[in-house]
Amino acid sequence: MRHLLGTKTFAHGIHPPEFKADTKDLAIRQFDFASLLIVPLSQHLGKPAVPIVGEGAEVTRGQCIAQPDGFMSVAIHAPATSVIRKIARSPAINGKMMPAFFLEPFPASTQEMPGGNPCDAETASKDEIIAAIQQAGIVGLGGAAFPTHVKLKVPDDKQADLVIVNGAECEPYLTTDHRVMLEHADDIMRGIPYVMKATGAPRAIIAVEDNKRDAAEVMRKAIPPGQPISVEVLPVKYPQGAEKMLITAILGRKVPSGGLPIDVGAVCINVGTTAQIGALLPSGQGLQDRVITVGGPGVQRKGNYRIPIGTPLRYILDKVGTEPNVSTVVMGGPMMGHAASSLDIPITKGSTGVIAMVDDQTDTMISRHEYPCIRCGHCVDACPLFLNPSQMGLLANVQRYDEMASDYHLMDCFECGCCTFVCPSHIPLVQKFRVAKSAIRKAKAAV
C-alpha cells in the first residue's frame, strides 16, 4: 500500500552521511548574551525593515525596533534589553555590507520579555493572523527566511487542501527541528491551528523522517483529540525537506515548473516556524532568538542552542570552543549552507546551524580541487528535479546564462547540492548556478 513506510518518497536524491549523532540527544540550551549584538535590518527575502528607534535609544527585549516596509517585509525586534550604540553597515553571509543595529545589552537586566497584543487562533480572522505573524517578525526558520505571512496568504483563485508541517530536517549535522519537536510539542500544536485558519486548509500533516521516530511519537501523542492533524514518517533521503520533494512524497503531486506549492493545493511550513507561531502569537511577542545546531568536527562543545538574533559568529565559536585546525565555518548545513567569509557575521532568523570543519577531516563534504567534467551522468541521476546539472555547468563556464534558464530550467533549481556532492570531478556546480542566477536577476532588474 502507498501509505507504508518506504513508498512515500520522491525520485532521485542522495544519501549523504548524516553526522547527527553528536547533537540529536542533547537538549536545547540557552546561549549567553554577547556584549555586542548586530541585528541586520534585512533578515528575510523581500524589503528590509525600517528603523523606528535611533542611536542612543534604550530598548526592551522583544521590543519592535524596525517596522515592515510593505507586505513583503517583516518587523525586527530587539534580542535583548539594551542600548542601541549605532546603526551602521555590517558584513552579511552573502559578502555584502548591510545596515544593522548594534546593540549593547545591559549586564544587570533580567532580560524578561513583556507581552504585546495577543492574537487568539479561535477568534482572530485570517487577515488578523497574517498581520500578527508579520508583526511578530516570523520568517521561515528552515533556512529560506521567506516571510511566513506571505506564504500563508493564499490567493483568491487558489485553495489549500493541506498544510505540511516540515520536520524532515534532512541536512547533515542539523538537529534543531528534531529537538524542537521533542521539547516544544505544545508550541507546535498551538501553532498549527493558526496556520490552518490563515490558509483555510482543512487538515495538517507533520512530516518526519524515519531517523526521528522518537520525535514522530512525541508529535502523535501531542495531537489534541479530534484535531485533523496526523504524522507521516518518511524514508531518510536527501533533499526530503525541500517543499517540492515533500509534496511529491506525501501527496504524489508535482509542483509545476515556475510554480508554487499552493498551485497543487499545499502549504509547507517548517516545524520550528510553526513552534514560534504557537509560542509568540498568544502573547503578542516578537521573534528575538532561535534554536541553532552548533557542531561539526571542529567544535568542542557541540549542541543545540537557543541563540539571540544578532549574536556574532566569533562569540559563538569562542564560547563552544574550537579545534586549532578549523578550516571552514559553514552557516547552515553543509549541503545548502554558505561558508562564512567573516567571523563578524551575526546570527539571523534564517540561521539553522554553525558547522566547523577541520583541515584533516576525512569525511568532509567540501572539496577544494576541481577537475574537468567527465560526463559520467552522476549529477543527472541525483537531481531530484530531473535537471541536467552537467550541461548547465558547462554553459556556466562560458557564461551562457540565458541558455541555462531557457533551455535547461536553471531557475527551477533550489540549490540542494546533490549534483555537487556526487560529482567525481568535485565541480562546484551549485556555486556556478548561484552565479548564473544572480547574473540573470541583475540583467532583468537593469531592464
UniProtKB/TrEMBL annotation:
This enzyme's EC code(s): 7.-.-.-
Cell compartment(s), UniProt: Cell membrane
Residues reported to bind [4Fe-4S] cluster 1: C373, C376, C379, C423
Source taxon at top rank: Bacteria
Annotated TM spans: none
Matches recorded under Gene3D superfamilies: 3.30.70.20, NADH-ubiquinone oxidoreductase 51kDa subunit (3.40.50.11540)
Major location category of this protein: membrane
One Gene Ontology term, aspect cellular component: plasma membrane
Any one Gene Ontology molecular-function term assigned to this protein's record: 4 iron, 4 sulfur cluster binding
Residues in 4Fe-4S ferredoxin-type domain copies: 364-384, 404-433
Cofactor binding summary note: Binds 2 [4Fe-4S] clusters per subunit.
Entry-linked Pfam families: Complex1_51K (PF01512), Fer4_8 (PF13183), RnfC_N (PF13375)
Residues noted as binding [4Fe-4S] cluster 2 in the record, renumbered to the chain: C383, C413, C416, C419
Keywords: 4Fe-4S, Cell membrane, Electron transport, Iron, Iron-sulfur, Membrane, Metal-binding, Repeat, Translocase, Transport
Bilayer topology: Peripheral membrane protein
GO BP terms in the entry: electron transport chain
Keyword Cell wall biogenesis/degradation: no
Cofactor(s) the record lists: [4Fe-4S] cluster
Biological function: Part of a membrane-bound complex that couples electron transfer with translocation of ions across the membrane.
Matching NCBIfam families: PRK05035.1 (NF003454), rnfC (TIGR01945)
Subunit structure: The complex is composed of six subunits: RnfA, RnfB, RnfC, RnfD, RnfE and RnfG.
Family: Belongs to the 4Fe4S bacterial-type ferredoxin family. RnfC subfamily.
Protein name: Ion-translocating oxidoreductase complex subunit C
Organism: Crateriforma conspicua
